[in-house]
Design goal:
The protein contains 2 helices and no strands. By secondary structure, it is an all-alpha fold. Helix 1 packs antiparallel against helix 2.
Length: 100
């Protein structure tokens, strides 16, 4: 009996670097804009808290998406194992009522 694994998603190191740099640049740009915004300090503080809320909720959402993907991969592997077991036990030449 052979087991086949679903193909693992291939994330290259270049893509990881690009994603990290993109995140760092975007957060830095927004932080710089908030710091140099004309107006009172409470406005900048409110926008800073809003930016932090967006960042943390983005991490939470990405974790939920990853967990959902991993859970569906586990279900897929269990279903594949059940199918392989049924196919291995199936004997097309067995007569009805005949024991193994």
């Amino acid at each position: 009996m052979t087991t086949t694994k679903p193909p693992a998603p291939k994330t290259t190191s270049a893509f990881m670097v690009q994603a990290a740099l993109s995140f760092a640049v975007s957060v830095s740009a927004v932080a710089y804009a908030i710091a140099h915004l004309p107006g009172d300090g409470w406005i900048r503080g409110f926008l800073t808290i809003g930016m932090l809320y967006v960042v943390t909720s983005t991490f939470t959402l990405s974790k939920c998406v990853r967990d959902h993907q991993e859970a569906s991969a586990v279900v897929s592997r269990v279903d594949q194992a059940r199918l392989e077991r049924l196919l291995a036990e199936h004997d097309p030449f067995r007569q009805p009522g005949q024991l193994h």
